[in-house]
Amino acid sequence: MSERKGLMGALALVAPVQAIVTLVIFIPALYVLWLSFQSSTYGQAAQFVGLANYSRVLSDPYFWRALINTAVVVLVVVHVELLLGLGMALLFASGLVARPLLLAVVLAPYAVSEVSAVVMWRFLFDPSIGIVTQALLALGLPTLEWAVFPSHGLFIVALLSIWLHLPFTFIILYAARLSVPGELYEAAAIDGASPWARFRRVTLPLLVPAMLIAMLFRYIFAFRLFSEVWLMTGGGPARQTEVLAVYLYNEAFRYNQFGTASATGWLLVIASLGLALFYLRKIYKEMFANAPA
Amino acid sequence: MASVTISDMRKSFGKHEVIHGVDIKIADGSFVALVGPSGCGKSTLLRMIAGLEEISAGELRIGERVVNELPSKDRDIAMVFQSYALYPHLTVAENMGFSLSLKKASKAETEERVGYAARTLGLEALLDRKPKQLSGGQRQRVAMGRAIVRDPQVFLFDEPLSNLDAKLRVQMRGEIKALHRRLATTTIYVTHDQVEAMTMADEIVVLRDGRVEQAGQPMDLYDAPANIFVAGFIGSPAMNFFAATIESVDTLRLEDGTAIPFSGGEGLAKDQRVSVGIRPEHLMLAPGGAPSKITLVEPTGPETLLTLEVGHAAVTMVSRERRRFTEGEIITIAPEPDRLHLFDPETGMRLPQRQ
Q1: What is the pTM of this model?
Q2: Is ATP-binding set as a keyword in this record (chain B) (predicted)?
Q3: Which of B102, B130, B149, B153 to mutate to test the interface with A (most CBs of A within 10 A)?
């Protein structure tokens, strides 16, 4: 009886959150699922069209362009961030002068809103007057023609995204590294481990759970990449730098095709779920393997 | 196995010297305990021997080799840490075999040596477990197993029993001692617990503020402490100290006027001021002794710990007599005349006494 009462109390406590999640995520998601099987635009009643939206999206070359762009940018961004974050975490943990100050410097980009960041970067990399462009020119290096070449556009988007989100990956890995007791390294040194062996046999395995968590979150965040692209290149030139979220936005609010936009949304969910599943499984296994018997 | 010779070893952190020229000779195969209060430098000294702290000056030899500049792994030592420092992601067997896997030892050799260590410590059933799944005592054993697998010249223990409960501590104390008997590997054992040092070690080195106060066999330190610090540190409960004057060759007079008979004072001058140390277990009930008021009675079973007020001084006494003591009661006590320790009140050094 009291257990039942306790359960009711617990449910009552989490109910507000659950209610909000239901209202703003669950119901809209289901509505979008329903919508993805309808033909729908302004001033017209939704009409059931079966899987037509999905087949239209999947046969649209711009969708595939956007999917490939997304995949490339996400893979590059997440993995470069992981490597840089790991390197920086190890550097910080190895003892730096003025560590608190440097920490603030490294974390600063995370405090900058995406929109301000893009505006800043547009100025910095402006093809004619940007400081970075000028500096590259002065050094005799090629400049980024991000408004002209799609590859340059995607490159600068990836760079911006890494700059913005590196603090997240870094702080997770740095915290994980700090939680490894120093005596383990002393024991390893006595056991005969070289610095490389200490990294590979002690640090790396102990950081794997944190790395998986960081990557899972970054994959999910990176997959919904939107404002960096939208504000930087707008998906241009000629829709060549569109990513999935931009494609979806265009479908919905430029072409007013709510049905195909909804289908795109669900394809996005399925794709990121497929990715997350791999990491979730690994994390689950990791935790399961470490659980006390 | 090897001897360890420490000559005028010093350690400074910046300008601050914490180890001030320590000399210790550790015989091959012996078990030496480094004891002292916290901050005395015993752990620093051990870490210098292990190669985890740089040696600022002096010389460290393991066997015939000077190892000052050698990295830990080349010193042929193994260390058991207070926190055990087990690799949490590896099983018991992998933890114990870690050094072998770094050396790329064959599977057969690894299995044999890990198996031997596991049998020695009774860990066979736990080889596939992770450290998280072990109790404190089992983790402690795995840490020792990891050291045994390396078959080193010297074992270093840094307060290995501090994280265990009292009962397990006594048990592991016996196990470590038995292990040392069996393996006969030179062992250096750091502890702040003088009982651990007394019970386990062949030789004890008492440290204070980065200096050796006294080194010797446990009972020698107990019977003839070199100075007031060692006298107070070795023995539990701690020794009582009084200011006194030599009255004659066989009588001391305490400040409050109490005369105490003693023996072995031939070399001392009349009226010389001394600090006299009396161990609680060397006080006895004596008719005609100093009247003392009992302020606290702590029976432990085999003996009773009494806190007394003698004059204005608080005195501890251990009585093995089966008698009912009550707080507030007045008893008369006297020390065993040949068990007094006399020290120079200025220098704190032991005064020559005929034993």
Answers
A1: 0.82
A2: yes
A3: B102
